[in-house]
Amino acid sequence: MAGPVPVNRLSLNQATIKHATVQTAVDGCARHGIESIGLWREPVREFGLERSAKVVRDAGLRVSSLCRGGFLTGPDVAAALDENRRAIDECVALGTDCLVMVVGGVPDRDLVGARQRVADGIEQLVPYAKQAGVTLALEPMHPIFCADRGVLSTLRQALDWAERYDTGVVVDAVHVWWDPELDEQIRRAGSRIASYQVCDWLSPLPEDVLLGRTLPGSGPIDLDRMTRHVAKAGYRGDVEVEVFNAELWAADPDEVIAEVVRRFHSVVEPAL
Amino acid sequence: MAGPVPVNRLSLNQATIKHATVQTAVDGCARHGIESIGLWREPVREFGLERSAKVVRDAGLRVSSLCRGGFLTGPDVAAALDENRRAIDECVALGTDCLVMVVGGVPDRDLVGARQRVADGIEQLVPYAKQAGVTLALEPMHPIFCADRGVLSTLRQALDWAERYDTGVVVDAVHVWWDPELDEQIRRAGSRIASYQVCDWLSPLPEDVLLGRTLPGSGPIDLDRMTRHVAKAGYRGDVEVEVFNAELWAADPDEVIAEVVRRFHSVVEPAL
Lengths: 272, 272
Known about the structure:
The structure is a homodimer. By secondary structure, chain A is of the alpha/beta class. Chain A has helices at about 20-30, 40-45, 50-60, 75-95, 110-130, 155-165, 175, 180-190, 225-230, 245-250, 255-270, and strands at about 10-15, 35-40, 60-70, 100, 135-140, 170, 195-200, 200, 215, 240.
């Protein structure tokens, strides 16, 4: 059947092959026909910022996002803001307009205060980000991470801030799948969805709950339904497959990427 | 200072000393001046239902709740409803008007369907419970348990059902503490709060996340704030200390109960 050649909207988040260098990740994308990549600051720093930007550019890849800014709940606000401005600069250098924000946990017993510090920090960062052409993509984190990583716990809460400060949000399947309000909040998010990330929930959870993820289609998340809602909300960007999983990290990156491509085509793409 | 002798509103949930018999738990309450106990069906069955009822009654204890009914998401609806009716009967036998409902997880990939089965099941059980004088206390579970234990994930969702079917709700600190809407949903709950359970979040989580709890005051939960909101909503019942924790389970029950009493007096009672 003739028709326009569809853009492949799969993006490989490099955390899925955590122990690979930026070069290996970029080569893997090229080899498997993936046109987009999600980068992390630490491996980019390790490989070199300019060097990373160059290999990504030379390979013709889009950079769907940079992970991650945030961590705004600690005592040293000025240092946290500086770090976030550096992350915004790195987005510009890497050619992405999306900085994923993991906002930080509860350093004490004052969750309400921690959330206020996040809101204040975001308000301060938005002008700098806008001038750089970068969207701060607020990522609601699964409540399992509220204590140590992210006091932003629901898409509703993320959108309350996103609308107030004019930012974007991340819809990451593993963080939001349980939310009884998910469908309506995705609808509400509309054009504020700056990043859509998919993987599945690993049950039972492993010892390190950070690694409680598995490939799309291997867990209880209804990714077909979620993806249809995200598409209906108007999202047209790349879809990152981002899986933190000890077995995948121990496997051959090339085989992992091949499986990521298969899962994307079978589980996600039909609903886009 | 003269005045009315305050009722001690501490209730020992027997899961806090999981390996003790009903007799040991009841004796411990008596020894430490605790006037109320939260029971579980399995140890009650092990000790004998009538025998449990008798030792509790003879000790003059209130039974603040029975854990647990629920598990309404599986394929055999009729069997699940029967099991819940038996749990309601056990409430009557034990002299408690509060059955804690843990509604069940997602057996497949259909979270929306699982939630509908819960709603349908509750609707069917309410007349039987009312006739028995038992309140079905819907317990929102931390989203970490959505896959395998409880698709009821927020107090808002619990109250939507509680208002529709005329049931109660449980406010369990460890399940709801992260919720950005907590204060307003507790206010909304008002007289529907059928049980208030406290413990703290254990961070980092242990290998078995079910045991990710610790004694009130040892974690990041602002129990003072939560307790004040629960009191302001009008709750006048007993407050269960319910801690699943491997170290506590391995310790001498009598020492655990002594520490529970201290924590209740220092962390919870001042806010009641």
